[in-house]
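Researcher: Let's continue the batch. This sequence belongs to Mitochondrial adenine nucleotide transporter BTL3, and it's 174 residues. Same format as the previous ones, please.
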Amino acid sequence: MVAPGGEALGGVIGVARHMIQTEGLFSLYKGLVPSLISMAPSGAVFYGVYDILKMAYLHSPEGKRRISMMKQQGQEANALDQLELGTVRTLLYGAIAGCCAEAATYPFEVVRRQLQLQVKATKMNALATCLKIVDKGGVPALYVGLIPSLLQVHVSSRKKTICTFRVSLINASI
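Model: Same format as before. Here are the structure tokens for Mitochondrial adenine nucleotide transporter BTL3:
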């Protein structure tokens, strides 16, 4: 599926060709630096929060009770079994950790999107773009659209509205 207006350029390949001809080959990599910079902190926050939640549960009275019940029932409780949280807790802790990672690295995504929206005539680097966003809207401008991003409604009829809402919020912040 091609976005409205994309047909005029011949779809994805036509758009890529147009970008290379008008802005050069590196226009295909707009926003790459903030994306790469956000990858390590995103993983670190995700796994750090998940591990904190997991250890808190395993050291809670309920977690200790579960481990002692396993031992009383004669089950050999190896280290892997003791660390098992169950499906619901795993999903819940994963969701919480994912939200924390998204919130921690969201400013990089805002800068990346702004870099991708820039035209060659007004092109700035990632740091200058970040400073411009903060200058115009303060630090909260780096978090505009975070709530819809955390909600990630994937109903097709609503997804277009949310994406449009996020883009318009980001554009309004600059």
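Researcher: Any comment?
Model: The longest helix spans residues 87-117.
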